[in-house]
Fold this protein.
Amino acid sequence: MMNILNKQFKGMTLVEGLIAIAISSTVMLGMGYIFSEVSRNFEQEFNRERIIHYGNVALDEITEQLKYTNDITLSTEDNFRRITLKKNDTNVIISANNNEGILIDDKPILRFSFEQEKENSMTLLDFWCDHISPGVGNHSSGFMELIQSIFKIEISIQNNEDGRIYNFKKEVFTPRFYISNKL
């Protein structure tokens, strides 16, 4: 009978088990928090890169359209700039709206909203194009003709996820427009 009472069982006590569960729960909660923060930061960075890509592609496409045109007409539509380009015997219209972004002949340059479940992940705030300012002073007519052939393009896009505004600007010399004005 003494042998049965003195026999030691190998295993964990209730207190040791509860301590192990508490430690592993704390570690798992910490890992879950780190994972969610990394995922959130990745998504924010991914959206930021998409907005930057969109802005750069839009500027490049508009630049290409402006470079090879003979006649440029600027107007305003829905608080955005509307650019009508005459190329040979056809017109190309560059316009914009908040939901579709920059449009060439009413077709979006790129898909403007990136997330299917979040319809508007970004908003176009501003699209503007105008001649650059000649600055102060008296300028020759040749200089003024040159200045009138340089256009400044500005695009502002707001990331709806974090509220940040991204501004894109580019100045474009339009050689065909300059030459056609000289003739």
Summary: The chain has a mean pLDDT of 85.
